[in-house]
Design goal:
By secondary structure, this protein is an alpha/beta fold. It is built from 13 helices and 17 strands. In the C-terminal section; belongs to the class-I pyridoxal-phosphate-dependent aminotransferase family.
Length: 462
């Protein structure tokens, strides 16, 4: 039978020392507060609970609390818990100074994040309740390293219907976002003896760095007005592409080039990694089907909820060729890296149709923002040309030659966070320099969009 002291109160680690129980307790509490181990505002256990935990008289604890209240270390009010008093905590000698957090920009137009204020909280909570109510108790145990079967099944159905992916739940692995999935694939490629991975001339350095950390060299492919050119794919071991919506340039890989990539993979045995990061968001064209649908045996389809819902969910997936699962599981360490409840919630969100409804509503909201951006540019900055506007959550603004850096300086002065195109160019890419800004119009919340757009137009050359 559990002892009464084990079932109430809050835990507090103390080691009273010195002469006398009361003095030892008082000194231990004072030292914990003085050094900052007990932060200002921390709620302390009741005198009854702490006395039971320490095996001492309740009056002893009450007297120690009273002494420290009188000294100003603690605060206590009738009917309220005893708490650590608000005060400046002096760090121990030798503690390095805490670095100052960088100031937040007034407006954020950095691409890569959706409007987090529009996350469907009520619908997600509803799905979470249904998922938790119907989940077997085994769902709270250590899980399948591939991910929950409910989510893998729901993803197989959705991806087949909406993205043209040829998916089987047995070939889907749930991961903690695309970067996690890419790290796993990099480890598998290196274990196979791979040395080089072809990448696009424009992309994210975090992805190139992940591959480099796995011991793989990234080699950029040529880029022209038709997008990435796979003509120089030769003896590389794999290729990383964003074929449905090139990041950040915004184009779609031409069907002839899509076919050429698949033909290269079949001929050489190379692996194609398809980053389908925002395939749900298109406005002026029909959706482009996944490259994986052309050859599931050589293409890894990678997706994520980071753009459609929120990156903080840390939920992504890999649709793997049949022979690759065991190697990826080995790289993953045989553990399930994503919380079961979040996986079950996303599965319910997909199956119930809530995900489709959310995407459609978000698509309309982002299209209106894009239209407002294009219209304002035509009115106030006619020398700036918007490209890559048919899909996604960002746009590339082509600037007059030599004006990118001055635009970035003006943006910083305005408190506007925005990136230049040069930031996304591979250091070995042999492409002509283009002056441009990459604007994430999906990032601000609705209430801040109009002022962010105004700040953007103020820094552009007229």
């Amino acid at each position: 039978m559990a002892k009464p002291w084990a079932t109430f109160g809050v835990d507090l680690h103390l080691e009273p020392t010195g002469g006398g129980v009361r003095r030892g307790l008082t000194d231990a509490l004072r030292e914990a507060v003085r050094t900052g181990r007990l932060a200002p505002g921390t709620r302390l256990p009741s005198s009854r609970a702490l006395a039971a935990d320490l095996g001492i008289a309740r009056n002893t604890v009450a007297d120690a609390y009273a002494d420290l209240v009188a000294e100003g270390w603690l605060t206590a009010r009738q009917g309220s818990a005893t708490r650590v008093a608000e005060r400046t905590v002096v760090p121990p000698t030798g503690t390095p100074p805490r670095p100052r957090a960088p100031g937040r920009p007034t407006h954020n137009l950095v691409p890569g994040t959706p409007d987090l204020a529009s996350f469907p909280r009520a619908q997600w909570l509803k799905a979470a309740r249904r998922a938790l109510a119907t989940a077997p108790y085994q769902a709270l145990d250590y899980g399948d390293p591939r991910g929950r079967i409910e989510l893998r099944t729901a993803l197989a159905g959705y991806l087949s219907r909406a993205r043209g992916v040829r998916a089987d739940p047995e070939h889907i692995l749930v991961c903690a976002g695309f970067s996690h999935g890419l790290r796993l694939l990099g480890a598998v490629l290196r274990a196979r003896g791979a040395r080089t991975v072809a990448v696009e001339s424009y992309g994210l350095d975090v992805h190139w760095n992940l591959l480099a950390a796995a011991g793989l060299r990234t080699v950029p492919l040529p880029f022209d007005e038709r997008g990435t050119d796979p003509g120089e794919l030769t003896d590389q071991d794999a290729v990383l592409l964003t074929p449905a919506h090139q990041f950040p340039m915004g184009g779609t890989l031409h069907r002839d080039r899509r076919a050429a990539v698949v033909e290269w993979a079949r001929r050489t045995g190379g692996l194609v990694v398809e980053d389908d990061y925002d395939g749900e968001f298109r406005y002026d064209r029909q959706p482009v089907g996944a490259l994986q649908g052309l050859d599931p045996d050589h293409v890894v389809h990678a997706g994520t909820a980071s753009k459609s819902l929120a990156p903080g969910l840390r939920l992504g997936w890999l649709v793997l060729p049949p022979g690759l699962m065991e190697e990826v599981l080995a790289a993953k360490g045989g553990i399930d890296s994503c919380g079961s409840l979040d996986q079950l919630t996303l599965a319910e969100f997909l199956v119930s149709g809530a995900y489709d409804r959310h995407v459609r509503a978000a698509r309309l909201r982002y299209r209106r923002r894009r239209d407002a951006l294009v219209a304002e540019l035509a009115r106030r900055a006619p020398r700036v040309h918007a490209t890559g506007i048919a899909a996604g959550l960002h746009v590339v603004l082509r600037l007059p030659p030599g004006t990118e850096q001055s635009a970035l300086r003006a943006a910083a002065w305005q408190g506007l966070a925005v990136h230049g195109l040069h930031r996304y160019q591979h250091p070995e890419a042999g492409v002509e320099r283009r002056d441009a800004l990459v604007v994430g119009y999906g990032t601000p919340p609705d209430h801040a969009w109009s002022t962010a757009l105004e700040a953007l137009c103020a820094v552009l050359p007229e």
